[in-house]
Amino acid sequence: MTTIRRRNGIRLAVAAVSICLTSVGIATIPESAPSASAAPVAGASIGISAANARDVGGYATRDGSTVRTGFVYRSNALNTLTDADNQKLVALGITDIVDVRSPNEVAASPDSLPPVRYTKRPIWDPDNDFYLTVNRIIGSGPAAQQQALGGGRAARMMQDYYRWMITDAAARRQVGSTLRDIATSSTPLLFHCTSGKDRTGLVSAVLLTALGVPERTVFEDYLASNSRLAASNQAQMTYLVDRGLVTDPALFTPVLGVQRDFLAASFDQIRRSYGSFDRFLDRGLGVDAVTVKALRAKMLRRGGLPPLFGSLDGGSSN
Q: How far apart are CA 175 and CA 192, in angstroms?
């Protein structure tokens, strides 16, 4: 594990595209879970202390179907779960956890889980680990941070990262494997990264798009991470500023949050590389038409099977 600086025996570890300060006791407050009698809420919190833990379902598709709730969940890191949190995961029937963090992130903050099938499926570049890159930027001091992130460079770095998740074959394999797991799992599954916003955000966006959820809704679900992570992000920046590690918190806004143009970069790269979303599913992720049909049969209620950007058979783009 890489550490930036030690002051008063406090270890500061920066994980991937988010800063993890669990070692200094910065906690998040879970949102209230909906009551059992309440109607399903799209993207509802699952009511654990992981602030960005939520249901992937509840969204309407273009043909009037609805993505089922209680089948697939997304989250930020699960390294500080309480006994009550773990009891909630058990109560939800979650038996599969897919962790897409890098080995360095997992080693720094291992998940604390009830008995489940735990799969490490890292979306990372071993030759350019984003976790270590952010560590180095913060550890380099305010002047170097300005040089690395100022003038729009932080946003461009994030856009490049989102394009990389589409162009990198290993990253695509991990996304495709997760979609196939969702299609075949007989019990609820949860996937997560560190903040539950970038890698997790992309997997969720690809899944919802494959199910026929409109692009506008997909982006709204993606951008919801900003409000869910706002309190912890503010606490993290306050910590860094108070210790003199950061003097311009605004430099890190693109790294700690999400922006529409980040996910848009992924979808633009999909169109550039594959011509249509359906071809991306088939040729980029190895998710064939049979698997897509299985996903829709499992995850949708009411309505038919909506078309995507282009046909899996014909490969045309709209």
A: 12
Please give the Cα distance from 191 to 74 (Å, whole number): 5
Q: From CA 286, how far away is CA 280, in angstroms rounded?
A: 8
- CB under 8 Å to 257, separation ≥6 — which residues? 197, 225, 226, 229, 233
Q: Residues 6 or more apart from 119 whose CB is under 8 A from it?
A: 96, 97, 98, 99, 181
Contact in structure between 242 and 8 (CB atoms under 8 Å): no
Beta strands in 160-317 (DSSP E): 189-192, 300-301
Q: Rounded to 5 degrees, what angle do the CA atoms 195, 200, 203 make?
A: 170
pLDDT along the chain (318 residues), means of 10: 32 36 32 42 93 97 96 97 97 97 96 97 94 91 97 97 98 98 96 97 98 98 98 94 96 97 98 98 98 97 55 34
Q: Quickly tell me which residue has 């309190």 as its tokens.
A: 231
Q: Which two tokens stand for residue 219?
A: 């982006």
Is residue 115 within 8 A of residue 96, CB to CB? The reply is no
Please give the backbone phi and psi of residue 300, each rounded to the nearest 5 degrees, phi first.
Answer: -110, 145
Phi/psi at 66 (nearest 5 deg)? -130, 140
Identity at 4, one-letter amino acid code: I
